[in-house]
Amino acid sequence: MFLTYLCCFTLCTITLFYMIDIYLVLFSFLLSCAITLYAVPSLIKLAYQKRLFDDPALEERKIHKYRTPNLGGIAVLTSFAFTACFCISGNILPYANYVFASGLLIFLVGLKDDLAALNPHKKFFAQSITALIVVYFADIRLTSFYGVFGIYEMHPVVSYPFSTLLIVFIINAFNLIDGINGLLSSVSLIVSLTFGYIFFQMQEYGLALLAMSMAGSVLGFLRYNAGKARIFMGDAGAYSIGFIIAVLAIQFIELNKAQDIAVAPPFVDSVPAVAIAILIIPIFDTLRVIVIRLVQGKSPFMADRNHLHHRLLDTGMSHTQATIALSSFNVLMIGTALSFQHIGTIELLILIALIALLMNTMLWLYDVRQVIVRAQPLIVEEDHEKIYQLRDHAREVAEEALQQYEEKQHQN
Fold first, then answer.
1. 112 burial level (CB within 10 Å; 0-12, 13-18, 19+)
2. Contact (Cβ atoms closer than 8 angstroms) between residue 229 and residue 181
3. Which residues are within 8 A (CB) of 128 and not within 5 positions of it... i.e. 6 or more apart?
4. Where are the domains of the chain?
5. Which residues are annotated as a binding site?
6. CA angle at 244 for the pair 242 and 250, rounded to the nearest 5°
7. In a 10 Å sphere around its CB, with 0-12 CB exposed, 13-18 middle and 19+ buried, how is residue 391 labelled?
8. CA-to-CA distance for 323 and 376, rounded, in angstroms?
9. What cofactors does this protein use (predicted)?
């Protein structure tokens, strides 16, 4: 009897603890969302008072037409940091101090870039220092290539710099997709919710709370950034989001590393490919524009209008339609990767690459079609001009022949 009561008590305790975790995760999501919703209107008012705008007249490639505040990152990071610090205890995320210290540093770098443009070399240096803090002190780094390029375990000499550069790459990749209204917030929301759900199922509650706090903050910001944007995220917000998601992505890969399948099988198979699928929009867009710029003989750091969102706008889509299209593609890739995760890392990477290239090919075919459509009136005009020339030449020949005939008749 005692054993029965003990089992029932243990079961109830475990169930209650599990439910508390669910409520805490939901609470972190709702709290960060509420704080952002409350803070953004005050930031918009402050920006207008202090004349802190993103002015489209200063750069030709700017899409928006009116001066818009770009301090949204302040609200996003504030709500995220407060919620995460309030909900996450040290025992479930022991390296949280390094994550928040680095997050604050990268936020200040982005804020400085928003207020007074920074030199690209200074930004890269600051981003590298930020990434190195979590890589070295928190030991958040990749230790395996999972057989990609035939490489498995990485030596620390390779792991530290590679992980640092990877974090810097993801930070800038998220900054680059912040080109149209709602895109960065929508993609960040999808990515954060995906990581939050997976980490919760893995019982990694500290990382789940970190991801859900970020999801709530960007959802609250999306209320003011979607459609006709009243405020932009700015580099401060984009850098902070990219940094936190880079940390989540690396931990997602490392925690699913199959060290001993018999003891602790990974929650997700082909984890590097699944991680790439989750981050497909910023990763593919960044790699795509870099390749295009190098092929055209330009610097990969030179800004242009070759991003995916620019290409969709050129097809006639609005900001909202382009955001929905790219967000839907992101969801499609996540679903595809999770559905085919058992086929193997290399095979899944090939599948993801083929789908991404298919989308790029569709955009290329649209460009070809537009060139053909523009060329058709020119071709018709040239044909008409040739017809007129032949007609005039024929008239001249006929008049000359008629004149010669009349002269012969007159001589006779």
1. middle
2. yes
3. 164, 165, 168
4. 2-277
5. 175, 235
6. 95
7. exposed
8. 32
9. Mg(2+)
User: Would you say 208 and 25 are in contact if contact means Cβ atoms under 8 Å apart?
Assistant: yes
Q: Looking up tokens 């949280």, which residue turns up?
A: 96
Residue 65 DSSP label: -
Q: Which two tokens stand for residue 401?
A: 């022949």
Cα separation values, 312 from 178, 366, 367, Å: 14, 10, 11
Instruction: In whole angstroms, give the CA distance from residue 125 to residue 132.
Output: 10
DSSP, collapsed to helix, strand or coil, labels residue 264 as coil
Binding site members for Mg(2+)? 175, 235
For the chain, the residue count is 412
Written as tens digits, the pLDDT of the chain (412 aa) is 444 443 444 444 344 344 457 889 999 999 999 999 999 999 888 888 877 766 555 555 555 556 788 888 899 999 999 999 999 987 889 999 999 999 999 999 999 988 887 888 889 999 999 999 999 999 999 998 887 777 788 889 999 999 999 999 999 999 999 888 899 999 999 999 999 999 999 999 999 999 999 999 999 999 998 878 888 898 999 999 999 999 999 999 999 876 544 446 788 888 999 999 999 999 999 999 998 888 888 877 777 788 888 888 888 888 899 999 999 999 999 999 999 999 988 999 999 999 999 988 888 777 777 667 666 665 545 555 666 566 666 666 666 666 665 666 665 5
354, exposed or middle or buried, with CB in 10 Å at 0-12, 13-18, 19+? Answer: exposed
212 vs 219: CA distance, rounded Å: 10
Report the candidate in 136, 369, 175 with the shortest Cα–Cα distance to residue 289. Answer: 175
Q: How is residue 406 written in tokens?
A: 């009349």
Among 70, 138, 140, 129, which residue's Cα sits nearest to residue 105?
Answer: 129
- pTM of the full predicted structure? 0.83
Q: How far apart are the C-alpha atoms of 371 and 387, rounded to whole Å?
A: 24
* Paired tokens of 393: 């030449």
**Residue given tokens 């770009």 in the structure block:** 70
Rounded Cα–Cα distance for residues 355 and 359 (Å) = 6
Q: Which two tokens stand for residue 215?
A: 């999801």
Yes or no: say if 220 and 34 are a contact pair by the CB < 8 Å rule: yes
Rg for the chain (alpha carbons), in Å?
29
Q: Give the count of alpha carbons within 13 A of 333, CB side only.
A: 33
